[in-house]
Amino acid sequence: MREQALLWERGDTSRIPFAVYTNEDQHRKELHRFFYQAHWSYVGLEAEIPNPGDFKRTVIGERSVIMTRALDGQIHVVENVCAHRGMAFCRERHGNRKELVCPYHQWSYALDGSLQGVPFRRGVRQDGKVNGGMPADFDPKEHGLTRLKVATRGGVVFASFDLRVESLEDYMGPTILGYFDRLFNGRQLRILGYNRQRIPGNWKLMQENIKDPYHPGLLHTWFVTFGLWRADNKSELRMDAHHRHAAMISTRGSAGQAAGDGAQVTQVGSFKESMKLHDPSFLDIVPEPWWGGPTAVMMTLFPSVIFQQQVNSVSTRHIQPDGHGAFDFVWTHFGFEDDTEEMTERRLRQANLFGPAGFVSADDGEVIEFSQRAFETKPEHRVLAELGGRAVEETEHMVTETLIRGMYAYWRRVMEE
Ligand code: FES
Ligand SMILES: [Fe+2]
User: Could you say which ligand is closest to the alpha carbon of residue 270?
Assistant: First the structure.
């Protein structure tokens, strides 16, 4: 099906064509418009590359990039494409090097991507004669790695292929920036570990999943049964002016476990009265001063990342598309340098709710996979996202799909331009 054939049934975004998730040409266009132009993408945390020479290989969209810390401490992001014959030369995920060397013909680059050495540049002397070599007008300055524009804030590193992209702060907008700064408020971050998973579904479904505040109280047995996320929790939904980013802000009721507390919740099919925790320390939640009230804030920064705070567990979740029908999802669990050992333990314990086998997140990977399967079988059909009406608006409750409608209103503006 061609991209022009997309049918938005009501003219708005309350009904989303399945074809939005199934068309490969359109996927290529999304990569260009959202990941390679005019947007910032998440690449990692400064704490992942604390020392000069440290690097991390990651991706923006489907392009491989390397985040480095140069010998002067400066952070750079360069594309993992050799300026010679194009090899994606860096194969390690993390490491420490004084320079980056492509194994194919050993071109070497400084950590900021500038070309330093080209073997046989001046040819090879043989029998008093110089053979080969690069042309006399070869200028190494013109053949460095592609350097991206970099922005860091609160220890988080973003990059853009688009050197004219607006500032990171303007990109987030004041509302989302406020929630970003709540989490990344200048404290040194401490990396606790990673989870990686491959989800056979379109990458936008992960953005949707976190812009859908009402499924956790229905789908996730763990959340419902142990009272961490309920439809009657005090909550707010906020967006940037373009409706591409969002924050779901929720405060867990003082009631905690749902048992005996409100018929509405105990009637939810996923509430399992008989389910008990063998280890109650999973719910050893200790409020932290920086929360400032909410017990959970889930932020979606379009297109590339989700920032999670669920009680004491904090993580970044990096969306890495791979074709229209799959993405890699990389979780970085972190804490703060001034955490006590006890708090670090607690964050790690609560992180068991998340990641590919998490008590909660395993469910999300599955529903995304099974949605994609259905989309592929009938791309002429459409999704219904009409809960809470058809408008795009901020709300003081979570019984709505308004953030999804907002994201697709933005998606359409950019894709139909
Ligand atoms: S392709 Fe990298 S040095 Fe030739
Ligand atoms: Fe979920």
Answer: 2
User: What is the pTM (predicted TM-score) of this model?
Assistant: 0.95
Question: What ligand 1 atom has the least distance to the C-alpha of 105?
Answer: 3
pLDDT under 70 in the chain at which residues?
Answer: 1-4, 254-266
Nearest CA among 226, 215, 214 for reference residue 363: 215
Distance 179 CA to ligand 2 centre (A): 20
State the ligand closest to the CA atom of 354: 2
User: Would you say 26 and 1 are in contact if contact means Cβ atoms under 8 Å apart?
Assistant: no
Handedness of CA 342, 343, 345, 346 (dihedral sign): positive
What residue ranges line ligand 1, CB within 6 angstroms? Answer: 82, 84-85, 87, 89, 102, 104-105, 107
Q: What is the DSSP letter of 143?
A: S
pLDDT for the residue numbered 228: 77
Q: Which residues contact 287 (CB under 8 A, 6 or more apart)?
A: 295
pLDDT for the residue 264: 61
- Which atom of ligand 1 approaches the CA of 82 most closely? 2
Distance 154 CA to ligand 2 centre (A): 27
Amino acid code (one letter) for 120 = F
User: Please, are residues 271 and 225 in contact by the beta-carbon 8 Å criterion?
Assistant: yes
Q: What is the pLDDT of residue 1?
A: 43
Peptide bond connecting 216 to the previous residue in cis, omega within 30 degrees of 0? no
- Where residue 31 falls (left for φ over 0; alpha for ψ -120 to 50; beta otherwise) is alpha
